[in-house]
Amino acid sequence: MEKRRTRLGVMGGTFDPIHHGHLVAASEVASLFQLDEVVFVPTGQPWQKGDRRVSPAEDRYLMTVIATASNPRFSVSRVDIDRDGPTYTIDTLRDLRAERGPDVDLFFITGADALAQILSWHRAEELFQLAHFIGCTRPGHKLEDPGFPDGGVSLVEVPALAISSTDCRERVHAGEPIWYLVPDGVVQYIYKRGLYRDEV
Ligand code: ATP
Ligand code: MG
Predict the structure, then answer these.
(1) How far apart are CA 131 and CA 127, in angstroms?
(2) Residue 108 domain flag
(3) How far, in Å, CA of 43 to CA of 71, rounded?
(4) 169 domain residue, yes or no
(5) In what residue span(s) does the Cytidyltransferase-like domain sit (predicted)?
(6) What are the pLDDT digits (tens) for 53-112?
(7) Could you give phi then psi for residue 61, rounded to 5 degrees?
(8) pLDDT of residue 26
(9) What pLDDT does 200 receive?
């Protein structure tokens, strides 16, 4: 009998910090696409994101580990944080493919907005050979036709919560609570390390 191929979700992000919106999106896509595992891949140390400094990769990595530890189907990969330079999705997918071998199908999960950017930066055909792309739209934010090429992309509406990392950082900076927006262990890690306290 032919062995079933492993279906591996890949959730890339800055995760500064990881929050329940990310976790719900991953869980929902895993269920809809019958994924065996979702690997969260924190980005490498990106110089800047917009005009702010991004927290150290080790902090973002550890928060992602804390947030996903209780789910047997979630894991975290260091491929992007251990590679020098800015993170490009094509490298993430190539590295994971090399690491996991040929019997694995990759499903790259990302926000539909981010997806439109990724596909405009890279040669879409090459990306589509490496993975199927799943763009998550949030309810009430129906995406205008982003001009995705045929095939290779699915759009799903996840019951995403109106949570963003930006809002979490601003709350910590302002002394407002982030309980229940991010997992408890991540709240405690943020306070322990003093993240976002002085700089949003
Ligand atoms: P920031 O506010 O700093 O931009 P973020 O909340 O968008 O952070 P990222 O780490 O940039 O978090 O996001 C990683 C991926 O998760 C992106 O593809 C993003 O579109 C998606 N995402 C972020 N927040 C949500 C959410 N609430 N629901 C579903 N997907 C989300
Ligand atoms: Mg964002």
Answers:
(1) 6
(2) yes
(3) 21
(4) no
(5) 10-171
(6) 899 999 999 999 999 999 999 999 999 999 988 888 999 999 999 999 999 999 999 888
(7) -65, -50
(8) 96
(9) 80
Q: Is residue 171 part of a domain?
A: no
CA–CA separation, 127 vs 53, rounded Å? Answer: 29
Give residue 111's domain range: 6-162
The verdict on residue 186 lying in a domain is: no
How far does residue 164's CA lie from ligand 2's centre (Å)? Answer: 7
Which one-letter amino acid corresponds to residue 103?
Answer: D
* CATH number of the structural domain spanning residue 145: 3.40.50.620
- Cα 36 to ligand 1 centroid, rounded to whole Å: 22
- Does the ipTM surpass 0.90? yes
Say what the pLDDT of residue 147 is.
61
Buried b (16+ CB within 10 A) or exposed e, 90-126: bebbebbbeebeeeebbbbbbbbeebbebbeeeebee
Domain total for the chain? 1
Q: How far is CA 89 from the centre of its chain?
A: 11
* Contacts (Cβ under 8 Å, ≥6 apart) of 28: 136, 156, 158, 159
Nearest-CA residue for atom 26 of ligand 1: 21
**Binding site membership of 118 for ligand 1 (Cβ less than 6 Å):** no
Q: Is 180 exposed, middle or buried (0-12, 13-18, 19+ CB in 10 A)?
A: exposed
